[in-house]
Design a protein that fits this description.
By secondary structure, the chain is α+β, with helices and mostly antiparallel strands. About 25% of the residues lie in helices and about 25% in strands. It contains 20 helices and 27 strands. The strands form 6 sheets. Strands 1, 2, 3, 13, 14, 15, 16, 17, 18, 19, 22, 23, 24 and 25 form a 14-stranded mixed beta sheet that branches. A 4-stranded antiparallel beta sheet has the order 6-7-10-9, with helices on one face. The longest helix has 18 residues.
Length: about 625
């Protein structure tokens, strides 16, 4: 099946997720055969195991990416583990993805919907939600909660809460005026009646590849976040009435003890937030008895979920001992082979699928000297990526040369084209030197002509500057450790100095988003592609996308932007038009090289024999698969 049902690139109204490590990344989220090929051992149909009718039991999920104390949404923290937790505690969005990765209206939520093309080129989506939906505290959910989300998360008031990007309504008529604070009414959003809302999309945002997602909204509990406010409709659009201020939101959302960002007690997803331990980075969720079900009406039957930090070198021991029950998206030879040993011994089960993403070195293209394409390419020529992938994965990964993963149908259709058209950047120190010389790195520290050894310098605005690359990485990361053995010597031979700084993941994230004390030239990360992958945002030169984790490379390149913009208007099912445009994007990206792609893996989920009904794929990840699964103690 080649339809965009199985699409996977990276974001839209969702986000692409980078993690400091290359084992457990995400995207809707968070796969080399068919796009969601999987293999499962220990199939429940052979075990005469029956799914319980009431919630019972506990599932401990191990993650190598620490769960952070941040539970609002990925705009604050796009940590892969946190993103999955958002999936579990928030819910009832009007548009969702099904098990094949296709976007659909959620029939559990949506009673009816209508799409109307207007004479001025705009398009209006009208959505009526079902009666009977409730928050976890029993409060009825109405259309006001959906309109409130669109207004709240597009507002200048919300933007003042730790720089929340406030982009929820970016594509809608009137957004610019509303976000600027020029008007209190959002022209493109209307509260039609108690159970119906409408949104009108700007003409310049159409046509759009994922047009169904324009109708999407997810409820926020107005009675918790803005308790003395209301949503009203006017001829100029919907508005929030009452004392709606940044100061109010700082209290209701950002208070470190009671704020909704850190203690979201009223939600509507399959699970409820129970507790978080800062010292251990462990989170506990309990089943939501008032959850209405996913798009199929399925409700969870695992009573409690514990999300626990594990270490690469000990996590299989924890699975064997029973201190964790599930290790998702496991990668790397040592980890996979240890897991397969447990399966052979009958102590664990497995599911395998190809990765919807890739491991990478990510450049900050706004920082000297990695703002230079030549410098980025020269670094790529200093790394033997085939040897890196061999040592890291032991044969459970393949080197990729662009912005794609093994799971994508585009990759499957383009293997020959990729071989013929993309630069593979085979290790070549002499080529690296030529690129640096052409870029003006021809001086010694004293200003004399470069001697051929030591760090190169370049004269910039009358000042000699060294070719020093600041690299931020995280502790206990096998990818960092391997890069540290392979890169420094080769880069030094080419005339570059690599300075490594090890830090925790939150500090690294702050550096990437330019909110920390220091910005670095490069980071080693992993990315998992969203189903609504939207490179036209990720490589946009518009300052609005240089925040919130969208253009995380901070690259402002008009040719790359144009290549991504060409994808945006192509119809969702028009593969014949999409593929050549995608290939052109890959060719431009491969030249600009905002990342050095390292590899794309074969992933394994390893899990306890007590876990039944486990069916995860590249497009149906653990936070979705857990709804169908159960445990037998």
């Amino acid at each position: 099946m080649k339809l965009k049902k199985l699409l996977a690139l990276v974001l839209a109204g969702a986000m692409a997720f980078s993690v400091a490590g290359c084992a457990q990344d995400e995207g809707v989220t968070n796969n080399d055969s068919s796009s969601q090929s999987s293999d499962t051992s220990g199939e429940e149909s052979k075990e005469e195991s029956t799914r319980p009718t009431e919630p019972t039991g506990q599932l401990v999920i191990g993650t190598i990416t620490d769960l952070e104390n941040d539970f609002y949404d990925a705009s604050y923290n796009n940590n892969a583990t946190n993103y999955k937790l958002y999936d579990l505690i928030h819910g009832l969005g009007t548009v969702t993805s099904d098990k094949e990765g296709a976007y659909v209206y959620d029939s559990t939520v949506v009673k009816s919907h209508e799409e109307k093309e207007n004479e001025d080129g705009t398009k209006t989506y009208t959505v009526t939600i079902n009666d009977g939906l409730v928050w976890s505290d029993g409060t009825p959910i109405t259309a006001k909660d959906y309109v409130f989300q669109l207004l709240l998360e597009s507002s200048p008031e919300m933007n003042q809460v730790d720089g929340y990007p406030s982009q929820a309504g970016y594509s809608l008529v009137g957004y610019d005026e509303f976000f600027a604070g020029d008007t209190k009414a959002f022209a493109g959003v209307h509260l039609v009646d108690d159970m119906t809302y409408s949104v009108t999309v700007k003409a310049e945002e159409l046509p759009y590849h994922y047009d169904i997602t324009y109708a999407s909204a997810a409820p926020r509990p107005m009675h918790v976040i803005a308790p003395d406010c209301d949503v009203e409709d006017t001829e100029d659009g919907a508005t929030i009435t009452g004392d709606f201020t940044a100061e109010l939101l700082q209290k209701t959302i950002n208070d470190p003890d009671t704020g909704y960002r850190y203690n979201p007690k009223v939600t509507c997803g399959p699970y409820l937030f129970d507790s978080y331990d800062i010292a251990s980075r462990q989170g506990t969720l309990v089943v939501n008895p008032k959850y209405a079900g996913d798009y199929r009406g399925v409700k969870p039957v695992i009573e409690k979920i514990v999300i626990k930090t594990v270490k690469n070198d000990t996590m299989m021991n924890e699975l064997a001992s029973g201190s964790v029950d599930l290790l998702f998206q496991s990668s790397g030879a040592d980890t996979i082979e240890a897991g397969l040993d447990l399966v052979d011994e009958g102590k664990a089960q497995k599911t395998t699928y190809f990765r919807n993403g890739y491991g990478k070195i990510q450049f900050d293209c706004s920082q000297f000297p990695t703002d230079s394409q030549n410098v980025r390419q020269a670094i790529a020529y200093c790394l033997d990526r085939n040897e890196f992938a061999r040592q890291y994965s032991g044969g459970y990964a393949a080197v990729v040369h662009g912005y794609y993963g093994l799971a994508q149908w585009e990759y499957q259709e383009s293997k020959d084209w990729i071989d013929q058209n993309l630069n593979t950047y085979e290790k070549n120190i002499e080529e690296a030197k030529k690129l640096l010389e052409a870029d003006g790195w021809n001086k010694n520290a004293d200003g004399s002509a470069y001697s051929g050894t030591g760090t190169r310098y370049k004269e910039v605005d009358g000042e000699l500057k060294p070719l020093t690359i600041e690299w931020a990485n995280t502790d206990g990361n096998p990818v960092s450790e391997l890069l540290a053995t392979m890169l420094p010597e080769a880069m030094a031979e080419a005339g570059m100095e690599l300075k490594a700084t090890t830090m925790d993941f939150p500090t690294l994230q702050n550096a990437i988003t330019h909110t920390g004390d220091k910005i670095y030239n490069m980071y080693n990360l992993a990315v998992g592609f969203s189903l609504a992958s939207s490179p036209w945002y990720y490589y946009s030169t518009d300052p609005v996308w240089m925040q919130g984790g969208y253009n995380s490379n901070w690259i402002a390149d008009e040719e790359l932007e144009a290549a991504t913009e060409a994808l945006k208007p192509i119809a969702y099912d028009d593969n014949d038009s999409w593929l050549p445009a995608w290939q052109n994007f890959m060719k431009v990206w491969n030249e600009k090289l905002p990342d050095i792609p390292l590899y794309s893996d074969e992933y394994y989920d390893f899990y306890s024999t007590k876990l039944k009904g486990w069916e995860s794929t590249s497009v149906w990840e653990w936070s979705r698969a857990v709804l169908d699964a159960w445990v037998e103690e």
